[in-house]
Amino acid sequence: MTEPLIQLSGVTKAFAGVRALVDGALDLYGGEVTALIGENGAGKSTLVKVLTGIHAPDTGSILIAGKPVSVTSAADAERLGITAIHQEAVVFDDLSIAENIFVSNRPRGRFGTVDWAKMRSEARRLLHELEADLDPDLPLKSLSIAQKHLVQIARALSHDARLVIMDEPTAALSHREAEDLFRIVERLKGEGRAILFISHKFEEVMRIADRYAVFRDGAAVGAGRIADTNTEELIRLMVGRSVDQIFPKIEVTPGAEALRVEGFSHPTEFDDVSFSVRRGEILGVYGLVGAGRSEVMKAVFGITKPSAGRLVVEGQPVRIERPADAIAAGIVYVPEDRQHQGAVLKQSILDNISLPSLDRFSVAGFFNRTRERAVADALAKRLQVRMSGLDQLVENLSGGNQQKVVIAKWLATEPRILILDEPTKGIDVGSKAAVHRFMAELVAQGLAVIMVSSELPEVLGMADRVLVMARGRVRRTFTRAEATPEAVVRAATDA
């Protein structure tokens, strides 16, 4: 049997007495992709930081090619051939592509000065290897997220990396860009490099990985070959219990029409978009990056203004010029970017939940803090927010719990129509299940839910109808029975 290229064993790490890693173990093989799987808080990030020298382990060992090594700094990791490509591209926007690739190992000339010609030449060679048609002198700020990922991969190759860590690398990529990334991963495997691939998307894990390692509560709880397992088993290992129903759909007979959008258009984003959603119904909105899904929903909520079209709420035409008008009409929007648009990270859970509905807690000019706390506490408990208390800062919550707080914030306004834009993006399977259960409960209570999602299993599992968009237009609307994966993808790719 092939020996692991890199081995971690008995690794522990504690912060202020709280153990983030408990006897962590991980084997990584050259020429293979190992998927690191676990819920938020499982210890994945701490493990990556140990590997990259950001955190020194309290106990345990790291072996490379069978020899013990010390990784106490980023420079150590770099010297040993360990590099990481993060979900948020770690690059310098005002520097050129070549400068970013060689930011820590610039080639030097005879007198110790930077050899700019050699740096550009080597950058061009590395980009050519990745089939990236980019000018090394271009500034990073002119590139797309996918292109910035390519620059990070080129940087890894410049160090002759033996281990490349990819942390949620496809989170902000289109379907085509993700396919391009997967081809590069295959090339890196062919060169004998070890790949540690971190993703919440099981379809990616099952497709790209050769092996898996599952962590739960800071400890390794399972590892093996992908060919010998399945999604259900991986989920069971992650959450410590069997998940019989990933998408807990409750069958509800839809009621009256809650919202109708007629002929919505925008000069650059979308054209002639029409749809409706009824009380007690989940309308799934699917499309690839650039389809115009989020842009339409922002116009419905009053963030942007359409050039044409009208809205009808429960049979009455409404005019929405700004979000306050939408909230007054019973429409709320949970944005995709929870950290920058959805939550105020420096404020408490309590303050975030009550922020858009402060008038509900004011009577005759007096603010009822007791009622505010009671409403926030009830919503936090219903959404199973893992917290030390309502006064905990949102920035100290995991991504999944931040998302639950954002949803709770808008539910506090008692809406009739709830728009969820990528409600489970980047959160773990346990948090996803909690959000899905709550969505099912809301429609059972008569709310109308519009769920924008790029995760096809989520759309097919939760939606009563599926509206598919491509290039800013509605291509087709499917009933639940008609919405097969093949049919939906065919419509979304405009095939």
3D structure, described in words:
33% of the residues lie in helices and 25% in strands. With 495 residues, it is of the alpha/beta class. The chain has two domains: 234 residues, 3-Layer(aba) Sandwich (Rossmann fold), CATH 3.40.50; 236 residues, 3-Layer(aba) Sandwich (Rossmann fold), CATH 3.40.50. The strands form five sheets. The chain has a six-stranded mixed β-sheet with strand order 6-7-8-3-9-10, sandwiched between helices. Helix 6 links the parallel strand 7 and strand 8. Helix 4 crosses helix 5. The longest helix has 16 residues.
Task: Provide a compact summary of the structure.
With 495 residues, the protein is of the alpha/beta class. 33% of the residues lie in helices and 25% in strands.
Task: Give the secondary structure arrangement, pairings included.
Elements: E1 6-15, E2 18-28, E3 33-37, H1 44-51, E4 59-64, E5 67-69, H2 74-79, E6 82-85, H3 97-101, H4 116-129, H5 145-158, E7 163-167, H6 175-190, E8 194-198, H7 202-208, E9 211-216, E10 219-225, H8 231-239, E11 257-265, E12 273-278, E13 282-286, H9 293-300, E14 308-313, E15 316-318, H10 323-328, E16 331-334, H11 338-342, H12 349-354, E17 362-363, E18 366-367, H13 369-382, H14 399-411, E19 417-421, H15 429-444, E20 448-452, H16 456-462, E21 465-470, E22 473-479, H17 485-492
Parallel strand pairs: 3-8, 3-9, 6-7, 7-8, 13-20, 13-21, 16-19, 19-20
Antiparallel strand pairs: 1-2, 1-4, 4-5, 9-10, 11-12, 11-14, 14-15, 17-18, 21-22
Helix pairs in contact: 4-5
Protein name: Sugar ABC transporter ATP-binding protein
InterPro entries: AAA+_ATPase, ABC_carbohydrate_import_ATPase, ABC_transporter-like_ATP-bd, ABC_transporter-like_CS, P-loop_NTPase
Domain ABC transporter: 6-242, 250-491
